[in-house]
Amino acid sequence: PYGWMGEDGETLLLHKSFERTVEEIRYFSPKDAQTYIDVRGAIDFVMGGLESIMPHHPAQLPKTMLAKKLLTLATDRKTRKVLMRMLSVNAFEMFSETFESEAMRGLWAFWACMFAPATVQASGVFLSAFGSVHRAGIYRPVGGMSGMIRAMEKVLTTHGGEIRVNHKVEQLLLDGKTVKGVRIVGGQELFAREGVLANCAPQVVLGKLLPDSAKDDTFRKKIDFIPANSVAVAPFKIDYAVGGPLTYRKAVAKRAQRDDMDVRKTTFMTGTLEQHIAQHKAALRGENVDFRPPLYFAIMSANDASIAPKNQDVFYLYVNTPINPVGGWEANKTAYSQQIREAVSFYVDGLDAEIGSIEHCPKDFEERFGAPNGAYFHVDMIPSRMLMNRPAPGLGGYRTPFEGLYLAGAGSHPSGGVCGWPGRLAAETAMKDRR
Fold it and tell me: Fewer Cβ atoms within 10 Å of its own Cβ: the N or the C terminal residue of the chain?
């Protein structure tokens, strides 16, 4: 499902089979292959722990199960050593000292950037980020994400629910410390029979949507300090509709010398660790890089033909950029887009048949989707903002200081991503309160 592509077309592919992945890594570095075997214990420990805690309210974790997992560390010195190192360094440091090949360093560097700020201490835990590939594999909904949304829509309407789009909420309606509903832009008020579950970012719910009179200075600062893309790096995304088939010509030719894998179906990352570090430093200054930026891209229709007409493709492209470039996005968006498009054309053939595209810079993500600083996880996925500290100390159990208001989005335990657990656990919490 995932892989790294070099500028010469060489590809490193991650397989669900751990053993097959090790052989893939061995092609680039026998030492890295052995290292990957050696760190598997730590990767499985972290991923196993996540699988245990994700389905539970953060205050109601399966303590016995977790205690048993922790006891296994007492006799596993190797795993304990790797875990301690993961929690004491940032992701870039971790990958630099763990792997030697450009392929492994570059692949892990990009993946870490998509989960959390890669230069924050303890982000070394994202050495385990690809663990889910080997444990359960990667699944995508038929029809793309919109197909899954349509399925959820059908469930809701079948049970008598009503869906409104393009009805932007202006403010939460309060009666003392109880949330009674919402006021929509234009003045219409919608009242809740039981409560309000907010799927948007906690910074929006408890910041912009709450009347100022309801917040004291301490609470206001707590919300203001919730980290979101806290190292000044944010996504720039381009989605293409292409009137012809796309291919990775150089990668296909290189791969044919090794095996017959269909690399069109892989989601690829590019770039070296050194390029990622340079890109992060430039972003802190609000500047662009003067080299081909690392990319994340996928031919989405290669795995799901239902989302594009025959012999045409849908293409997904993601790049890290500054949150706020010097001069602002209005002055810079066109230049960044041009550089990104030129960069991806180095790897992908057929984009000249583009029918149309949609571009989102970090400012667009914030304005259109309410994602603070363009952070699609809403709150940075760092160890200090997990469990009962997600999104902030005192707000980690879906309930808020306002009766009838619950945090049900990516900024709540266990995380963002396509998992559904924040919404489900928030709904269960709300239903218990209303009984």
Answer: C
